[in-house]
Every structure is written in C-alpha cells, then in structure tokens.
Write a structure and sequence with these properties.
Blueprint (H helix, E strand, L loop, with lengths): L6 E4 L15 H14 L3 E5 L5 H13 L4 E7 L2 H10 L6 E8 L2 H8 L3 H15 L6 E6 L6 H14 L3 E3 L9 H14 L7 E5 L7 H10 L4 E4 L13 H10 L1 H4 L10 H12 L16 E2 L2 H9 L18 E2 L7 H10 L6 H15 L7 H17 L13 H8 L23
Parallel strand pairs: 1-2, 1-8, 2-3, 3-4, 4-5, 5-6, 6-7, 7-8, 9-10
Helix pairs in contact: 1-2, 1-11, 2-3, 5-6, 7-8, 12-13, 14-15
Length: 433
C-alpha cells in the first residue's frame, strides 16, 4: 500500500520570524518550539544561526531541549554559514542543515553576480560540506520556479549526487498558479535521473494568495514535504498556512490524496500562542484559526446551525482546538439565536418576552457591532421589569417601529378596522428565523 503521508516542515521560527513585527526572543522561540512539538510537526526549522548570536543560541537551545522532531537550521551556500549551523545543531537528537542558493538568472545576474557554473559548483561544495555535520541535508534552489528548467535539472541532479537528501524547489515570490506548479514539479521529477534518491519539497509564498493551493498542487505532482508556517506568517504576504494545508487533507482526504501526522486539536492553541508571543493578532476571517472561523451572525445561518451544525460548518471546531461554535448577536441575528443565548444564560422567557428582547437587541445592534452577554442580560432584565410594571397593551408594538406592521393590521382578514394587534416584525437578515 502506498504511503500518502506528507512531511510537515514548519518554518515559523525561521521564515515566519523574518516577517516585520514577528521577531521573538530565545525563550519565546523555545516556548513555541515546544508547542510545535505538541502539534507533532515532523521538522522544526529553528532559525538562521549565522544571522546573529541570539539566533544561533536559539537554534542550539531548541536542538537541546526539543527531542522528538528533526531540528533544522538554515545556511546560505557559504562555508561560514554551514559551519555555524552545524555547531548550533550539535545537541540535536536529529538534525538537518538546510542550505540554499538562488538558481534563476535574475538572481544570479542581479543579486549574486555569479555565473551558472559558479552557482552549480558552490551548491555542490556546500552540500558536501554540510554532510560533514549531518547525513540529513536539504538543498533549496531559491527562486526555482523562475529558473531555467534545464539548468535547474542539472543543479538538482548534481546536489543529490553530492549527498542532498531533500530537494526544496520554492516559489520564492509567490508568482506561480497551481497548474504551473503541477507542471513544474512533474517535469522536474520526471527528468532528473536520480530524483528517486531524494524527497522533494515545496515552499510557496502567498503574494498572489495562492500559497496553500500551490502547495496542494505540488503534492499532487509527487512532492512529499510541505514547508509552511503557523497562521501563514512569513516574508511579505507570508507562507502557506500550516493549519490550512493540514485541514484540507483532513476534511477532503478523497480530493487531497495525502495525510499528515499533525495533532489537529493543537492547531488553535498553537495559533493563539504565536499571536501572544508576537503581539500580532490573527486576522478575524483567517481560515481555521481566526475568531470568525466558527462564528455565525446571520439569522439564516444561526437557525441552520441550531438545527444541524453541518448546514454551515464543514468541520467541528473541537477538531482544531477551538472551544466551540459562536453564535454572535448583532443586527443580522435571528430570533432563534437570541432565544438560545437567553436559555444558555439561564433565562426561560415567554414568546412575548422573546419578541420584546429580540426587538431591543436589534435596535441596540444598529449602534454597535455586537451584543455582549452582559448587555443581553441587561435587556432581559429591562423586559422583565417592564412586564411587571406595565400592562401588556402599553408595550410598544411592532407597528410603532415598522410600517409593515401597520399595513398588516389593515389587511383583509383582520376585520378591516385596523384594530387587530399586529405580530412582531423582525428586521435585518434574521427575518423569519
């Protein structure tokens, strides 16, 4: 039976931390690394040791104290970088040196100012040097998807022969579309003679919002490692979001065609810890881990959720570590959701009381984004107090706030004299539910 498990290479502590505003101190990195261990990621890229003494020390500490996953460190194809990474990783139970050099003509000519032959020689020598520290060496061809295919194939073949065990071909600037990624990896895997001797990896950036889609496309083409970050953080628009890649595999296994070993109930706690450590909040509508991912305000949606959560949720919040679904009370809420929240708060209301609470909540929601439990309790108490001090007839009817109610009172079947009491009229998107 074919093993469809994909290796999850988490680079939150390296590529993710390079994003403006997301830097972390050594103890913070260590705390997040422990949580990534709890999440059961396969590989933690702990940092870029040559970048600073603190980065080297953080890699060393993670390597020393986090024992289950493979600990990786980044190094340019530069001798000093590789040596620094090798020394920082020395305490690790399982270590990986991840060395890289750009292979696109744009980067070679404009940034590195070297020839293709110099690039190839440097890549091969660097892999050989890294093998002196560990037998697990990953080579990345920076800007691979914009590289000349014939030259890229040559580089890949030579670094595998030199001892690289993982080949990462990143979409460094998030330029590709999924069909291009599938074609790209299919060609590389089919044309590199010794491709079977290495694991191929994808590292997609999100400049066009396609990082996750491109990662899935790469896996379909035969890639067995996905590089990603918690909350999708990273350079510029970020990286492929770990939680999205993982949950696509979990929710749509028949389409994704792969699985991971991630413990999904740890996804939300990991996301929250990262936000806490960096002070950078997760966007509200972020898939899987955003605060609105399992929140519902529309009355139609709330009514469906109360009847069967599958009407509007394709996964259980508990599966990703979110405590529960939230029915948000706002101007779009329906009567059923408000009644349910009242019951959850311990209030048994009559139908008339629910009508009155509903109308007051909707009026209040016209002036603010949402209604808190404290505000709802206050409304309930006001309604109950009004009911004990005023006769029912004196309570403002829907006709005082909605023209439709007055029209209903005059309609045939009400005696035609306009004296029949109109039923409460709901407003907003919650109409009828």
């Amino acid at each position: 039976m074919v093993d469809t498990t994909v290796v999850v290479f988490d680079t939150t502590l390296r590529d993710g931390e390079q994003a403006p505003g997301f830097s972390m101190h050594i103890e913070e990195k260590l705390r997040l690394a422990r949580q990534l261990d709890d999440l059961n990621v396969d590989i933690i890229e702990a940092g870029f040791p040559i970048a600073s003494e603190a980065d080297a020390e953080s890699v060393r500490r993670v390597a020393l104290e986090v024992r289950r996953p493979t600990i990786a460190a980044l190094a340019r194809c530069v001798a000093a970088d590789i040596d620094c990474a090798g020394h920082a990783l020395k305490p690790a139970a399982r270590s990986r040196i991840h060395t890289f050099i750009a292979t696109s003509d744009l980067h070679l000519e404009r940034k590195l100012r070297i020839t293709r032959e110099q690039c190839l020689e440097t890549a091969v020598n660097s892999v050989k040097r890294a093998r002196q520290f560990t037998d697990d060496v990953q080579f990345s061809a920076e800007d691979a998807t914009r590289s000349d295919m014939d030259f890229l194939r040559r580089v890949v073949e030579e670094v595998i022969a030199a001892g690289a065990t993982t080949i990462n071909l990143p979409d460094t600037v998030g330029y590709c579309t999924p069909d291009e990624i599938t074609e790209f990896f299919t060609k590389v895997l089919a044309s590199v003679p010794n491709a079977s001797k290495a694991v191929f990896s994808t590292h997609c950036h999100d400049d066009l919002g396609l990082a996750v889609a491109n990662s899935i496309a790469a896996v379909r083409a035969g890639v067995r490692q996905v590089e990603c970050t918690i909350n999708g953080i990273g350079e510029r628009a970020g990286n492929a979001s770990l939680e999205e890649v993982v949950m696509i595999a979990n929710v749509r296994p028949e389409r994704a065609g792969f699985k991971t070993l991630i413990k999904t109930p740890q996804l939300f706690p990991t996301s929250q810890l990262l936000a806490q450590l960096t002070g950078e909040a997760v966007q509200a509508n972020k898939a899987i881990v955003g605060r609105n991912a399992f929140a519902h305000e529309s009355g139609i949606h709330q009514d469906g959720m109360l009847k069967d959560r599958r009407t509007y949720e394709i996964m259980n919040p508990e599966d990703v570590g979110v405590p529960k679904t939230t029915l948000v009370l706002g101007k779009h809420s329906g009567r059923h959701a408000i009644q349910k929240r009242c019951e959850d708060l311990g209030f048994a209301l009559s139908k008339l009381e629910v009508d009155r609470v509903y109308r007051r909540v909707i009026r209040l929601a016209d002036h603010q984004k949402h209604i808190s439990d404290a505000e709802l309790i206050s409304v309930i108490e006001e309604v109950k107090e009004t009911a004990t001090t005023q006769p029912i007839a004196s309570t403002p009817s829907a006709s005082s706030t909605a023209p439709a109610a007055h029209a209903h009172a005059q309609a045939p079947g009400n005696g035609g004299n306009g004296t029949a009491a109109a039923p409460p009229v709901e407003v907003g998107y919650g109409h009828g539910v």
